[in-house]
């Protein structure tokens, strides 16, 4: 049994969320390549690197357990589809100058999870959770009213990630094998897309003699390293503590969008984000109070 080390857990958790928050810097370097092509290559390189990492996995018979449960393969195929959709929307949003809206999606993601728990798992919400969800809804409505349209990038990212997490919550597959299986199930689709587009930028022989090619080949490590840091952090920290750290990533994305890439952030957007931030504050306070009550009862 491994020793719990909170300091190591915080370091790994911070590493994961900071890396996720800095993803736009990486994808901006690839913006000459269409988003769907980046995702196809990301699936390919993630599948290859994942296969290598699984050779060092401590439970070599994990695949037998998976084959014994065909329903789990269906669940992982659905997870892979949601993951690919999330990647595609996010990469497109970053390279289309919509990082502010992408950050909004990951701010509302925890509250989408609460809502999914209510609707799908029939969980009962506490009063402060209701207030947090209401404030988030007010922020989204503010966005709709101000821009005269639904913030579909934010809602799609939050929805895909929320349902992805919900399905994973119902499965018993470990994170690394689960992600590798998801990418391998997506591999035929990615290879099929590349085969149907022989003139794609990444299939031109000269492309693989450029620095951009090496960056693209690194997409497997870019995908798996923060996930592995997160997975290891979860062994040393309560999941709720990791929940508080998750706000680091969208905050970094928002700061990069406004201060580094000069995306507009007008008072109307500030008002909408303020509602979301207020909802997250209420959600965080409720989580802290609930953890405190649980600790007092167990003590």
TrEMBL record:
Record organism: Corticimicrobacter populi
- Membrane-crossing residue ranges in chain numbering: 9-27, 73-92, 104-121, 128-145, 151-167, 174-195, 207-230, 242-261, 267-289
Q: Which InterPro entries match?
A: EamA_dom (IPR000620), EmrE-like (IPR037185), RarD (IPR004626)
What superkingdom does the record give? Answer: Bacteria
* Keyword terms, alphabetized: Cell membrane, Membrane, Transmembrane, Transmembrane helix, Transport
Q: What's the protein name?
A: EamA family transporter RarD
For this chain, the family text in UniProt reads: Belongs to the EamA transporter family.
Provide the topology term for how it sits in the membrane. Answer: Multi-pass membrane protein
Assigned GO CC terms: plasma membrane
State a single Pfam family of this protein: EamA
Q: Where in the cell is it found?
A: Cell membrane
Q: Where is the EamA domain?
A: 8-141
């Amino acid at each position: 049994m491994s020793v719990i080390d909170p300091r190591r857990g915080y370091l790994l958790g911070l590493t994961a969320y900071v890396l996720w928050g800095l993803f736009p810097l990486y994808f901006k370097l690839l913006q000459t390549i269409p988003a769907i092509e980046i995702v196809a290559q990301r699936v390919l390189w993630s599948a290859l690197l994942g296969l290598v990492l699984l050779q060092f996995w401590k439970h070599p018979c994990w695949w037998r357990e998976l084959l014994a449960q065909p329903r789990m393969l269906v669940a992982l195929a659905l997870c892979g589809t949601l993951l690919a959709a999330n990647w595609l929307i996010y990469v497109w949003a970053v390279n289309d100058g919509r990082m502010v809206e992408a950050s909004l999606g990951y701010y509302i993601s925890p509250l989408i999870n609460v809502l999914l728990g209510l609707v799908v798992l029939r969980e009962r919400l506490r009063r402060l959770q209701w207030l947090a969800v209401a404030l988030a809804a007010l922020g989204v409505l503010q966005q709709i009213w101000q821009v005269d349209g639904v913030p579909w990038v934010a809602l799609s990212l939050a929805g895909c990630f929320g349902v992805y997490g919900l399905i994973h919550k119902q499965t018993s597959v470990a994170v690394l094998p689960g992600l590798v299986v998801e990418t391998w199930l997506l591999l035929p689709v990615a290879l099929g897309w590349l085969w149907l587009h022989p003139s794609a930028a990444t299939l031109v022989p000269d492309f693989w003699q450029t620095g951009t090619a090496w960056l693209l080949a690194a997409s497997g490590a870019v995908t798996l390293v923060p996930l592995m840091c997160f997975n290891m952090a979860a062994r040393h920290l309560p999941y709720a503590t990791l929940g508080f750290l998750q706000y680091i990533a969208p905050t970094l994305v928002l700061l990069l969008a406004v201060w580094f890439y000069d995306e507009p952030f007008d008072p109307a957007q500030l008002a909408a984000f303020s509602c979301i931030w207020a909802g997250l504050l209420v959600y965080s306070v409720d989580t802290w109070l609930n953890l405190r009550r649980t600790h007092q009862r167990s003590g």
